[in-house]
Amino acid sequence: MARIVAGVTTSHVPAIGAAIDLNKKNEPYWVPIFKGFEFSKKWMAENMPDVVIVVYNDHASAFSVELIPTFAIGCAEEFPPADEGWGPRPVPVVKGHPDLACHIAQSCILDEFDLTIANKMEVDHGLTIPLNLLFGEPKEWPVRVIPLAVNVIQYPPPTGKRCFDLGRAIRKAVESWPEDLKVMVFGTGGMSHQLQGPRAGLINKEWDTRFLDNLTKDPIALTKIPHIEYVRETGSEGIEMVMWLVMRGALDDNVREVYRFYHVPCSNTALGHIILENVDKSPRKAAA
Ligand code: DHB
Ligand code: FE
């Protein structure tokens, strides 16, 4: 059966994509940022999954502001990079896993999580930058990707608890897929960031650190954080962190922190990245 083995979170600051695409990785500003992902790229190469479910938000690229699904799962064969205003990023087309994605959609919807099914969708920096940070700049992405777009653009986004519970439903769906597939879940966006207004550039390292600690220590406490606390403590775009809770919900209760990287500033934001691994690696019975 398929199995979720690990979860990864990372910010998706678009300037990282520009640094890669414009060949600026060796500039002093960017060196420590890319260095922070060297371990992760090596670890990923050694633990390469077959499929990654990338929980991200579309930034009015694929959906526009006319249509904003709360949760949308990409069931297409492939997902081209979106044109975000300067042309599409020069990254490979993202290959999907339509069979598993449709199975997850069916399992979750019958489990009362009413996902929107996206049979055609472009993907923006929210999805492609995390792929670069974990897989580098290959000619083809080395994994199949199932995009899961979450609305954190227009109020109201889903609650952290809803996101965590969706992660649980995704785990059940994956564990009822008969083929032996190694699956990882990426939660993207975050950490502290406020991109506009008088508080632009707000960083709350203490809050971010506690959030990172509690991903392992007390994820249930994280599910109780109300929207207003994310916005007040970490800035308006800090709300992207609810997406990390989909990743956490998809893992077991018992996880091990493999690696962490926190860096300020990255553009106007705090960059946070963590790798969590399920402790129990024994084979499991398929979920009912
Ligand atoms: C910026 C945009 C984002 O979507 C994000 O998550 C972080 C930073 C930016 O424009 O700098
Ligand atoms: Fe974002």
* CATH superfamily heading: LigB-like
Estimate the helix proportion, in percent. 25-40%
Strand content: 15-25%
Mind telling me which CATH architecture this is?
3-Layer(aba) Sandwich
Give a quick account of the main beta sheet: strands, pairing sense, barrel closure.
Answer: 8 strands, mixed
Helix segment tally: 10
Describe this structure in words.
- It is built from ten helices and ten strands.
- The chain is an alpha/beta fold and 288 residues long.
- The chain has one domain: LigB-like (Protocatechuate 4,5-dioxygenase, Chain B), CATH 3.40.830.
- It has an eight-stranded mixed sheet with strand order 6-3-7-2-8-1-10-9, sandwiched between helices. A two-stranded antiparallel ribbon has the order 4-5.
- A hairpin with a 2-residue loop joins strand 9 and strand 10 (269-278).
- Helix 4 packs across helix 6 and helix 6 runs parallel beside helix 10 (242-250).
- It starts with a strand and ends in a 10-residue tail after the last strand.
- The mean pLDDT is 96.
At a glance:
This protein has 288 residues and is α/β, with parallel strands linked by helices. The chain has 10 helices and 10 strands.
Task: Give the secondary structure arrangement, pairings included.
Layout: E1 3-10, H1 14-21, H2 31-35, H3 38-46, E2 51-56, E3 71-74, E4 78-79, E5 94-95, H4 98-110, E6 116-118, H5 125-135, E7 144-150, H6 160-175, E8 182-188, H7 205-217, H8 219-223, H9 227-234, H10 242-250, E9 255-266, E10 269-278
Parallel strand pairs: 1-8, 2-7, 2-8, 3-6
Antiparallel strand pairs: 1-10, 3-7, 4-5, 9-10
Helix pairs in contact: 4-6, 6-10
